[in-house]
Write a structure and sequence with these properties.
Layout lengths: L8 H13 L4 E7 L11 H5 L4 E6 L6 H13 L3 E4 L8 H11 L1 H9 L7 E7 L5 H9 L18 E5 L2 E4 L3 E2 L7 H10 L9 H15 L3 H6 L13 H4 L5 H17 L11 H13 L11 H39 L1
Parallel strand pairs: 1-2, 1-4, 2-3, 4-6, 4-7
Antiparallel strand pairs: 5-6
The structure holds guanosine-5',3'-tetraphosphate.
């Protein structure tokens, strides 16, 4: 699996984002609580510059609270204001509004020193696809809050929603591209739903997810599917394995797990074989909706391990490709020699 995910429309999204950022005082950076590292955008610091920011980890209801605490400390130590939310239920949304007020205290007190009675604040939400931007904007604005239309002196064509007294939120969130610095990050993002399934190999994605859950949340898969996690079968052979990012052993175990989950759920084709595609859809849907449990995919120590593993796998893949090329070259020269 090799995800190179930077669709052309992202360049346009970036330009729109840069334009919209000029209109606001503060940015609400929405990330996925299950991916507090991978769902952040590496370029965001450069794009938003010195503008105040609140870091919001949404879908907190799906994340492991113990891991969320580790990341809270990690980012607070770096000086960020951190809030965890569940935009579906509305949990934590008021805390975000309070955090926005707090972050803007200086600006408000500076303008009251200059004699202004009230200061209007403008905010916008940014985040990667599917992180809950629209849900968040809807929850913040509340059902009762009608669009306020053009704000005088700000812009003609933008819609602003009231977030409370004198705070307005741009109704179109800024789209960011996710951090894909290695293929494991790509798989985590795909598992969360931020990267479309079509761009990844769903079998390998599930093999990654199931083996990850099995080693970090022992018992979760057994409990959800009523299966016994299979032993690592004989490593598969063939090209599929040489192209894997997981490594042959982990892939083989993950696919055996996927097969067992599919069997347990009755995802079978005629003749009794497991329909791996249907099994993958079930496994991904269960994970994404939290039915497999409160599971976080970014662990600080795992990120380090993965970086090393990615390097090892890439080197081994490169060696294999070089050997293949060498064999081909030898074969060609032997063939030419015979002529
Ligand atoms: P986006 O604008 O960033 O693309 O995300 P959007 O709000 O459309 O949300 C994407 C999916 O995530 C939606 O599910 C939404 O309900 C769900 N979601 C958003 N915030 C939360 C949260 O805090 N917790 C949980 N558990 N889910 C959240 P969907 O399946 O696409 O639609 P539906 O479930 O609303 O029908």
């Amino acid at each position: 699996m090799n995800v190179q995910w930077y669709p052309g429309h992202m360049a346009k999204a970036k330009r729109t984002l840069e334009e919209n950022l000029k209109l606001v005082d503060i940015v609400i950076e929405l990330c996925d609580a299950r991916l507090p590292y991978s769902s952040r955008n590496p370029a965001i610091d450069r794009i938003i510059g010195k503008k105040p920011r609140v870091l919001v980890f949404n879908k907190a209801d799906l994340a492991d609270p113990a891991v969320s605490e580790i990341w809270t400390n990690f980012y607070r130590e770096k000086g960020f204001t951190v809030v965890f939310t569940d935009a579906k239920a509305g949990d934590g949304v008021k805390k975000v509004i309070a955090a926005v007020r707090k972050a803007m205290e200086d600006k408000v007190s500076r303008s009251s020193e200059r004699g202004r009675i009230s200061t209007t604040l403008y905010a916008m939400v940014v985040g990667i696809p599917n992180v809950g931007k629209s849900s968040f904007v809807n929850k913040v604005a509340g059902k009762a809050s009608a669009k306020t239309g053009d704000r005088p002196g700000v812009t003609r064509d933008k819609q602003w929603l009231s977030m409370g007294d004198d705070i307005y939120l741009l109704d179109t969130p800024g789209l960011l591209w996710p951090r894909i610095d290695n293929q494991f990050a790509a798989m985590r993002l795909a598992a969360s739903g931020a990267v479309k399934d079509e761009v990844v190999d769903r079998g390998e994605l599930c093999a990654f997810l199931l083996t990850f859950i099995d080693s970090h949340y022992p018992g979760a898969i057994e409990k959800r599917y009523g299966i016994t996690v299979p032993e690592v079968p004989e490593a598969f052979s063939g090209d599929y394995v040489t192209e894997t990012i997981l490594g042959a052993e982990r892939l083989a175990k993950g696919l055996a797990m996927l097969e067992a989950c599919g069997k347990a759920r009755g995802c079978l084709v005629k003749g009794g074989d497991v329909d791996l595609d249907r099994a993958a859809a079930v496994v991904l849907d269960d994970f994404r909706s939290g039915k497999t449990g409160k599971i976080s995919l970014d662990f600080p120590e795992v990120l380090e391990e993965e970086k090393a593993e990615t390097r090892r796998n890439e080197e081994s893949l490169k060696r294999k490709q070089e050997k293949r090329a060498e064999r081909k070259a030898n074969y060609r020269s032997r063939k030419n020699g015979k002529r």
